[in-house]
């Protein structure tokens, strides 16, 4: 079915103009329609809130600091199976696993560490809904999506 997802190009990738351009081009080359796009810098507080589900994990502090360390680019993307397709393009969260199992994935090619892993993508319809409104508070997912 036609779906929406939230995709984020994280601070390490935005800091490199060629990497940012390459990732943007990959979005276009994969038949995603860019519904919204925004460059943002998070305060620490927004980073903590977005990743609250990871608050007990050993990597939480470094994740929160990293995601508030500089500009990011967020997109709302539409496509057939947008959530799964973007996640497949990204590859596994952990960079060394990505390099081993999916060497052409974005994280394998561009990721630096398990934390600085280049991109984010929603993992379900529910989290896409939450994450789209987190980044784009005036976006109304219910005007785009049928009830599932
Ligand atoms: P993301 O898809 O944005 O969701 C949670 C983030 O936490 C993940 O990408 C990584 O940036 C980070 N993360 C997840 N697992 C680890 C890990 N084992 N070590 C360090 N960072 C991690």
Plain-language structure description:
It comes from Hippocampus comes. One of its GO terms (cellular component) is ruffle. It is an enzyme of class 2 (transferase). It is found in: Cell projection, Lamellipodium; Cell projection, Ruffle; Cytoplasm; Nucleus. With 148 residues, the chain is of the alpha+beta class. The chain has a single domain, classed as 2-Layer Sandwich (Alpha-Beta Plaits), CATH 3.30.70. Helices cover 43% and strands 19% of the residues. It has 8 helices and 4 strands; from the N terminus they run E-H-H-E-H-H-E-H-H-H-E-H. It has helices at residues 11-14, 17-29, 44-50, 60-67, 82-90, 95-101, 106-110, 125-135, and strands spanning 2-9, 33-40, 72-80, 119-121. A 4-stranded antiparallel sheet has the order 2-3-1-4, sandwiched between helices. The mean pLDDT is 96. Bound molecules: adenosine-3',5'-cyclic-monophosphate. The site of adenosine-3',5'-cyclic-monophosphate (CMP) has 8 residues, from loops. Adenosine-3',5'-cyclic-monophosphate is lined by residues 54, 59, 63, 93, 114-115, 117, 120.
